[in-house]
Amino acid sequence: MKTGKLPESALKRSVLKQVHTGNHRIKPSVSGMILENTKGAAIGSDCAFFAASDGQVLAWCAQEAAVAGKAGADVPAALVQKCVNNLAAAGACPASAQIGILLPEKYEEPKLKALTDQLSAACTAHGMEIAGGDTNVTSYVTAPIITITAIGVTDREGMRDLSMAKAGQDLVLSKWIGLEGTAILAKAFKEKLCGRYPAYLVEEAASFDRFLSVEEEAKIAAESGAAAMHDLSQGGVFGALWELAEGAGLGLCVDLKKIPIRQETVEVCEVCGVNPYEMRSGGSLLMTAQDGKALVKALEAADIPATMIGKLTEGSDRILQNEEEVRFLDRPKGVDLIAEALNA
Fold first, then answer.
1. Which residues of the chain have pLDDT under 70?
2. Running DSSP on this structure, what letter comes out for residue 167?
3. Which domain holds residue 148?
4. 3-state SS class at 68
5. Is 167 in the same domain as 297?
6. Are strands 228-231 and 129-137 parallel, antiparallel or unpaired?
7. Does residue 131 lie in a domain region?
8. Whole-angstrom distance, CA of residue 145 vs CA of residue 250
9. Are residues 249 and 326 in the same domain?
């Protein structure tokens, strides 16, 4: 298997078909709270929802990553941010996290302390308490592997899920695509990039990780009537569009020229040989709304750039238009282009 997301066909065949979901109820013996599983595993669903008997809805999400390679130092904070973005796209406020760490045998304790400090600081910055976890040493890994299970809180009205997207709704994208990947590549290949572009351009590209949170736009979007939200990540904007359409059981039509992209991203991707439409794009939120223009206006009033890029349609055709050229959106391959570029 290639590095990156498991291909969708394998995910459906070997994972989702083996996972049995439904209206299962869990009643913890201590609190007496009844949790009803309202939404489980599905394509594009980053969170599972449990409706509590007190009217609240708890959202669960999980993310994992290896602390290795040229981007290893940024992994802990980025992983926490990814969990927070997942919860925000689900309409939930982050509350707590459980963290699991697998360490290689030769990993030194001072490094573990620094790693834990990074995770703790990132969780604290987002108002999340580390409620527990597990740390083990094993000969089966060559770099630390972090798994974060994050829990957020909302209510039934605040829940956002891809199944809430409907045909005819506008597609709105916040900020610009490729922010996460651009920052990683600009830091990893700074010397190479500075040999071709002015230093200020490379430094600006490397600082794009300041845009990685989607919490504010998710809050504004929910308040402005957005139906569904999906944060961009591995697979980029093309992957997010496919997952949203697949999760909603709909088609879409997108104007390729309206997808917002920074010039720094274009330049960095050209040098590194990466497709900006398919690389990691954390920091951008894909939203559906009945009135996309009003949503764009609400986001821009909060100084958050936003663009209406297309519409959801009946059927299953996923169309990309580029002036007179029309083509169909390909099923995501799941390959992590950033990892490939870093390991090349």
1. 1-44, 53
2. T
3. 28-155
4. coil
5. yes
6. unpaired
7. yes
8. 36
9. yes
Residues 104 and 216 in one domain: no
The pLDDT, as a whole number, for residue 54 is 73
The owner of tokens 């690389």 is: 279
Given a contact cutoff of 8 angstroms between Cβ atoms, the answer to whether 272 and 197 are in contact is no
Strands, DSSP E only, in 162-217? 170-174
Q: Token pair for residue 344?
A: 């090349």
* Single-letter residue type at 95: A
* Domain count within the chain: 2
Can you give the length of the chain in residues?
A: 344
DSSP letters for 76-95: HHHHHHHHHHHHHHTT-EEE
- Residue 160 is classified by DSSP as -
Number of C-beta neighbours around residue 143 at 10 A: 15
Helix (H) or strand (E) run with residue 203 in it: helix 199-206
CA geometry: angle 65, 71, 73, nearest 5 deg: 80
Distance set, CA 192 to CA 187, 195, 313 (Å): 10, 5, 43
Are residues 207 and 271 both part of a single domain? yes
In the prediction, which pLDDT does 33 show? 45
Task: Give strand pairing partners of 251.
Answer: 313
